[in-house]
Amino acid sequence: MNYTSLHEVMRESFGATLYKCIDANETNRCANMYLLFVPAVFSKQRVLWAQLYYEMEFYTIHPIDLQLLIHVDNESPKFLIKKVWYNHKLYNSYEDFINSYNNGTTPRKRQLFPDTRIKSHRQYGSLRPRQKSSHIKGLKHPPIQLEPDGHRYTVNAQTVKYLKWSFHWVNSLKKGPTLFNVQFEEDRVIYEMGLQDIIVIYTGDSPAMSRAAFADGFTALGTKSVGLVPGVDCPGYATFLNVTIKIDEFHGGGVLPNAICIFEHNLGRPLRRHHSTIEAGTDMFYGGLVATVLVFRTIYVINNYDYILDYMFYENGAIEVKVYPTGYVLTTFQHPSERKYGFTVGKDATAPMHLHLFHFKLDIDVLGRKNRYETLDIDVERFNSPDLDGTGNDDSYRYQLTRHLKTTELQAVHKFNFSLPKHHIVYNNKMKNEYGENRGYQIKANGFANQLLPKNTGFESAISWSRYQMAVTKHKDIEESSGSVHTTVDAGEPVVDFQSFIEDDENIVDEDLVFWLTLGTFHIPKAEDIPNTATSGSTLSIQLTPFNYFNEDPSMESSGSVYITPKTVFQPKKGLNIDNAFPPINKSCLPKLFTFDELEKDGTSIFFPYF
Fold it and tell me: Which of 27, 358, 435, 553 could form a disulfide with 519 if both were Cys (CB 3.0 to 4.6 A apart)?
C-alpha cells in the first residue's frame, strides 16, 4: 500500500506532515494521532479510530478533519487502514478514498496550520501566563498555609499516622495507590479502599467520537502520576513520596518522583460550632473547632485529562474521597452536525459531551468483619390527628423512617432515585453504643451518575458495574477488582465480569462486606474549558461518617477545640475566658516558606524523569 499518498493528502489539505515533531521549531508543522479503541473483541485484531490533530500546545484542541479506521494485527506489527473519514464523508476503503481524492470526485479540503505568529493563535490552548508579573503593579501573593510546629503526622515507609488515624498504602500498577488497614483509635474502619478504574465515554457525529470509549486502567494507572508540583498541586510544606514501579518502559524498574503528596490542610471553615447568646435563654458561650484534615493525594495524567484523587481524614472519625477532573478536553473538527453533541470551543473545534465514571472499592470492617448493610428509607405517611391545631382538619402528613436490612447481594444493588431518599448504613449488629444503637458508618456520595447505555450493548458489557451507583458483595479473594487492564478491548468477553459478583446472590448478613461505588459526571465542555477544565464545579466525592459509632463526637477531644465564655455572666464586655489548649505561636520561629526558586535549582529530575 502506498502510504506516501496519505502524506501528500496531509500536506495539500492540512498543511502538515504526519510524523512526530522532534523539536518546537515553528517550521515543523506536524500532525499527531489520538488512538480511540473500538471496544470489541476480535480473534487476532484490534480495531481503532485515529483522530488527527495538529501538533501544538495542546494538540487535542487542534483537530484536523481527517480520521482513519485502523486494524492492528495482534501477532505482528502489521496494520491496515480500512476506512477514511475526510471532509465530513466516510470512505469504505483507503483505496476508495485515495482514488476519489486523486481523480477529483471528492471535494478537497483546505485547512491551514494555525499560524503561531498571530497572537490569538499562539495563545489559544496555551497554559503560559497571559502577562508577566513584572508588568503588574502592586502584585500581591495569594494566602498560603503554614505548619507552625511542623508535621502532626508521620510517614514511616508506607505507613502513615495522623492524630488518631493510621493507614498503610501500596501502589498497584493497574490502579495506582490503594489504602489498607485504615484505623481510628486503633480500631479498623476499612480494610481496603481504592480506585478501580476510570472510564470515559464520548459521543459525536464523526466515526471516532461516536465510538470512543476508554477504560484508563488499560494504560496502567500506577504509572500515570509523577512530578506533583509544590505550591500548586500540593502545598509547599507537604511530604512528597516517590513510587517505584516495574514495567517494560523502565527496563525492569523505575522510580516516579513526587507521585504522591501528604499534607495537613486547614479547610478554612469550622468542623462544628455554635454561638449561644442571651437571647437564646441560656448562658452566653461559643464553642467550635476548625476543620483540619490529612490529605493523601495523587494525580493521574491520562494523556489530555488530569484526575486529582484525594483521601481525606477528619478529626471526628469521618473519611472523604474526592475526585477533581481537570486537563484538556478532546475535540473533533467543527461541522454543523456536531451541534447535537457539543459546543464550539475554537475556530475549527467542537468539544463533544462525554461521561466520566470512577469506580471505587471499599472493603469496610466496622469493629470486625461481620457486618450488615441496611438502608434508612425516608417517605411520607398520612395520619389522622384529633384536631391538634384547632382547625377542624384531621388529615396531616409527616416524614417517616423505615429500616430495610439487605440480606442478599441482589437486594443490595442501588440505583439512585431522588423520589426515594435513603441513608446507607453499614454496622456491626453485636456492637452497641451506650444508648443501645448499632455502631456503624454512613456511606454517602455526591456525584452519582447513570451511564444510560442499554444493557449488554458494546462497551457497556465490559463495565457492568456502571449499571449501579452502589453494589454490596460478600468478600472473596477472587473478586479482587471490578475490572482489568483489558477492559478497553474486551467488551465481547470481559476478562472480569462484575455482574457475576452479584448474580450468585450470596448472603450478606453478618459477613465481610465490600462496597463498590460509582461516581460520575456528564461533562458538556464550554468555551471556558479552554485551555483547561477547572476543578471548580466538577468535584465528586464519597463520605464515610460515623453513625452511632461513638457516644459523642470524638473531635471533642481535639486539642484545637475553642470554648469562649464571658468572665462576668451576661456582661461579655468585661472580658472573656478562652479555653484552648494551644500556647501562643512564636512568630519568630515560623518555618521557612516554600518558593518556586527552589524548583529552578533541582526540578529537572522530579518533573521530567523520562529524559
Answer: 358
